[in-house]
Specification:
A 10-stranded mixed β-sheet has the order 5-4-1-2-10-9-3-8-7-6, with helices on both faces. The chain contains 8 helices and 10 strands. It is globular and about 55 Å long. It has a single domain, classed as Rossmann fold (3-Layer(aba) Sandwich). The mean pLDDT is about 90. It binds adenosine-5'-triphosphate. Adenosine-5'-triphosphate binds next to helix 1. The site of adenosine-5'-triphosphate has 13 residues, from helix 1. One of its GO terms (cellular component) is plasma membrane.
C-alpha cells in the first residue's frame, strides 16, 4: 500500500540565536489506518511535529514531504496558501487536550460541524460514531451539561466525522483519569483502523502508550549539539 504521509529529511527551527530550537525528522511514513504514538519530554518538540504534520508550520528543509500524493514542500514553497487550507480542512481531524467544543451547539451539532462547514451531506458515520463512543443518549445536550470524559469523546467523534485521512491527537487524554484515558485511546485506535484513517497520538504518558502497544516514535533531545536540537526516532524496545 502506498503511503498516505511521507516525510524524509525534514527540519524546522523555532526561535533565533542561541536559544533557537530545531526539530529534525529523518523519516516518517504513515499508511491509511496506521496508528502511531509520539512521545518525548516537555519542550522536546512534539507540538512542533504536530504543527508540521497539521500543515500549519512551514518546514525550513524537506527532502520529501508528501500527503495524499500532494507535494506539501512544493505547496509551501509556492507561497501564499497554495491549497494547504483545503487539504487541512478536508483531510485532517484534530483532537485537542480539552474538547474545544462550541458551547452554543449541542453535542450532535458539534460533531457534525466539520461536515457542515465543508458542505458535506448527512453521513451514517455520525450516528455510528455517537453509538460507538456511548454518546447517543447525550446528543441533544450542550457541552456544559456533559462530563469532561463525555466532552472528550464528543471531540473524538467530531475529529472523525468528516472522514479525514489523518487525525492528529495532541495529549487527548490529559484531562482524563487513567482508566478512561486507556479506553478513549483504544476507541480512537479502533475507529482509525475500521475507517482507514491514520492516527497520530502525541502523549507524554509513556505507560499509557506501552499499555496500548502502539508503534512509538520518540522526540529525543540531542546532547552535545549547538543550540537545542531534537530528532524523531523509532522505538524498538516495545
Ligand atoms: N513560536 C516559538 N518561538 C520560539 N520557540 C518556540 C516556539 N514554539 C516552541 N518553541 C520552542 O521549541 C521547543 C519545542 O517546543 P514544543 O512546543 O514543540 O515542545 P513539546 O514537546 O510539545 O513541549 P510540551 O510537552 O511541554 O508541550 C521548545 O524549546 C520551545 O520553547
Amino acid at each position: 500500500m502506498t503511503s498516505l504521509l511521507e516525510l524524509a529529511g525534514v527540519e524546522r527551527r523555532r526561535g533565533e540565536g542561541e536559544g533557537a530550537f530545531t526539530l529534525e525528522v529523518g523519516e516518517l511514513s504513515l499508511r491509511a489506518g496506521d496508528c502511531l504514538a509520539v512521545t518525548g519530554p516537555s519542550g522536546s518538540g512534539k507540538s512542533t511535529l504536530l504543527d508540521l504534520l497539521g500543515l500549519v508550520l512551514c518546514p525550513d528543509r524537506a527532502e520529501v514531504f508528501r500527503f495524499l500524493d500532494r507535494d506539501v514542500a512544493a505547496l509551501w514553497r509556492s507561497g501564499g496558501d497554495g491549497g494547504l487550507a483545503a487539504l487541512r480542512s478536508r483531510h485532517l481531524g484534530y483532537v485537542l487536550q480539552t474538547g474545544g467544543l462550541l458551547p452554543f451547539l449541542d453535542l450532535r451539532e458539534n460533531v457534525e460541524l466539520s461536515r457542515r462547514l465543508l458542505g458535506l451531506g448527512p453521513d451514517s458515520l455520525t450516528g455510528e460514531l455517537l453509538a460507538r463512543l456511548g454518546l447517543t443518549h447525550l446528543k441533544a445536550k450542550k457541552p456544559r451539561a456533559l462530563s469532561v470524559g463525555e466532552r472528550q469523546r464528543a471531540a473524538i467523534a467530531r475529529a472523525f466525522a468528516h472522514r479525514p485521512a489523518l487525525v492528529l491527537a495532541d495529549e487527548p487524554t490529559a484531562a482524563l483519569d487513567p482508566s478512561l484515558a486507556l479506553e478513549v485511546c483504544r476507541l480512537m485506535r479502533e475507529l482509525a483502523a475500521e475507517f482507514g484513517i491514520a492516527l497520530v497520538i502525541v502523549s507524554h504518558d509513556w505507560a499509557l502508550v506501552r499499555r496500548l502497544r502502539l508503534p512509538e516514535l520518540r522526540v529525543v533531545p540531542q546532547a552535545g549539539t549547538s543550540g537545542c536540537r531534537s530528532r524523531l526516532e523509532g522505538v524498538s524496545d516495545a
